[in-house]
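Many introductory courses stop at the sequence. We go one step further.
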Amino acid sequence: MVVVDRKLTSDELAFYSNNGYVVVADVFPLDELETINRDIDSIRENDGGDIHRNPGWVMSLGLRSEITRAFVQDERILDLIADIVKPGIAIYSGKLTTKLPHSNDICHWHQDDAYYNAHATSETRMSVWIPLQDATEKNGCLWVVPGSHKSGVVEHGSYGGQCPKSMGPATLAVEGAIPCPVKAGDMLLFDAELWHHSKENHTDQIRRAFIVSYQEATVPRGNGDQWKILRPAS
């Protein structure tokens, strides 16, 4: 069953506040995700293959087609984040991250605001992480550190991997880290200061995630042309 146009429950909001993330089940029908998958295939073909330093990634995804543009502005998403991102809601950026089959690529531990604060600072910025296939430990789901969003942004450096800035090398051991598998159709919401990373894809199937970052509408800019106010501050 797909739940349409609902807000987070009080329990979900409390979990997000305490842990810095929450998974919401049954937001998108699978046939809709398949349409987005086909559209992404077309985007990549028309752009001549890889359009990012990481194979299969697509940046500024919300500006690439009418389908992806509509998805980053989807009212189902906005209703779910309305009690987190306020006053008002604006897009900061959107992208596709990919784990190719049998890929050893990892994204080291990092916080999104270590990147985003260079463009604009925000009090409520967060991301929605929407897997287009089931994201599991085997194919490279996110790992998170519950509660890590409460301590601010820590120093980041260049350690290689899929993410150009991170908190340390691939061998960095982070206490309290847990895997966060998310099924296709579900959605992971997480704070822009949450510690997170992803590991290798040990399967013969691709793993894609459509990621959109939002911030309050009162912040006057985001990541270039991707910034757009969707719900003005009242």
